[in-house]
């Protein structure tokens, strides 16, 4: 009798599912940023009455600001 598993094996697949702590996931999202978008359409009898498009960027301030460049003259302040 042969048994098969529906869950991927991490030895076979490097991208297999693995548990991730919520804190780690939140840290990764804030470090790189994520865009959330969606569309809502209210219609009656196949006639679109209201259409709302939503787009949100979630990221930390440090992820959105460019890195500071060193002063070429070496001046401080």
From TrEMBL:
Main localization, broad class: other
InterPro entries registered for this protein in UniProt: Gas-vesicle_GvpA-like (IPR000638), GvpA (IPR050530)
Pfam families assigned: Gas_vesicle
Alphabetical keyword list: Gas vesicle
Compartment annotation: Gas vesicle
Superkingdom, natural source: Bacteria
Cited PANTHER family: GAS VESICLE PROTEIN A1, GAS VESICLE STRUCTURAL PROTEIN 2-RELATED
Family (UniProt): Belongs to the gas vesicle GvpA family.
Name this polypeptide is given: Gas vesicle protein
Organism: Micromonospora purpureochromogenes
